[in-house]
Amino acid sequence: MKKEFKILISCILLLISCFSFGQDIHFSQYYNSPLNLNPGLIGAFKGEFRLVANQRTQWSSVTTPYSTYAISVDAKRIFNTPFGTGLSVYQDKAGDGEFSTLQIALGGTYTILLKDTAQSISLGVQPAFTQRSINYNKLQFDNQYNGNNYDANLSNGENFSNDGGTYFNLHGGVAWNYEIDTRKEVGASVAMHNIIRPQQSFFNEDIPLHQRYTLNANGLFKISEKIDGLPNIVWQKQHNFQELIVGGQGKYHLNNGNYKALYAGVWYRNSDAMYFNVGMDYADFHFGVSYDLNLSSLQVASNKRGGFEFSLIYILQRYKPDMRRYKSCENYI
């Protein structure tokens, strides 16, 4: 039974790898990965420059861990214009075959301030370059079984003509934000990724990367003098796959020097996982960590253990000097 169980788990993980081949990189802390969520969120922050780093590890309790890394930098109101710009880099490595995805995206936004200036609409576009590869030497084949055990020195009997490929992509999105009052905001965004449906096959086959549609809504509401509520919901669809995440965080204001606020939240990803997050604002930094509890059919192998995810955000504030104009008094001339 133990051998059959291992075979079953291997088959499940193989299917997961196949599905991930046709899906985009995403994070549980999507709210801390804005340039991946929606190109319209480039420059959507209070400050002048923003640096974001994300790291996710999952399935370490089942197989070779799947690891995802991301780093992005964006800026708003370039040269005092309504334009913003951002650069993001993503690296994902999955499974025993080290299936790797490297994506580099350079995007821009145009922000329109509405009449009361408390509301804004940002239109974003994000061209991207993606490189994918797989290491066949890391995989095991039935031809390498010598009758007793696996022998890496035996030929796998396969002839792979290609171990990678590259393609150009294009994403777009719109984001709306309304700052109603101090500690009271609402926002919404819609995005379409993979607009041109690039071909992603290694073997010149007709396998386009399906478009991904994303809808997101969020809010910030003052609950008490020290506590805010931050509800958030996102729905994504890519071909036959859908994802719905609902949840939120509580924010506790410390107002104690550089230690500014603490966060704690609970989230549910439909038919897949429940996860928890904590975070802290320190000076101009925001730190976040979350952990997924697997609730899908794979929990038989994972024992409900999903993975950790970390995020770091740094926002550079530039304070312009208060320009005062003086006029000489005639009595002293």
Concise account of the structure shown:
With 333 residues, this protein is mainly beta.
Task: Provide an overview of this structure.
With 333 residues, the protein is mostly beta strands. The chain has one domain (2-317): monomeric porin ompg (Porin). It has three helices and 14 strands. A 14-stranded antiparallel barrel has the order 1-2-3-4-5-6-7-8-9-10-11-12-13-14. A hairpin with a 2-residue loop joins strand 6 (164-181) and strand 7 (184-193). It is globular, with a radius of gyration of 24 Å.
Helix/strand order, N-terminal first: HHEEEEEEEEEEEEEHE
- CATH first level: Mainly Beta
Q: What is the residue-averaged pLDDT?
A: 85
Principal-axis shape: globular
* Alpha-beta content class: mainly beta
Main sheet properties: 14 strands, antiparallel, barrel
Terminal Cα span = 102 Å
The count of domains is: 1
- DSSP, total strands: 14
| CATH topology category name | Porin
Which strand order do you get reading across the main beta sheet? 1-2-3-4-5-6-7-8-9-10-11-12-13-14
CATH superfamily membership, which one?
A: monomeric porin ompg
Rg result:
24 Å
Residues in β-strands, percent: over 45%
CATH architectural name: Beta Barrel
Low-confidence stretches: 1-22, 321-328
Number of helices: 3
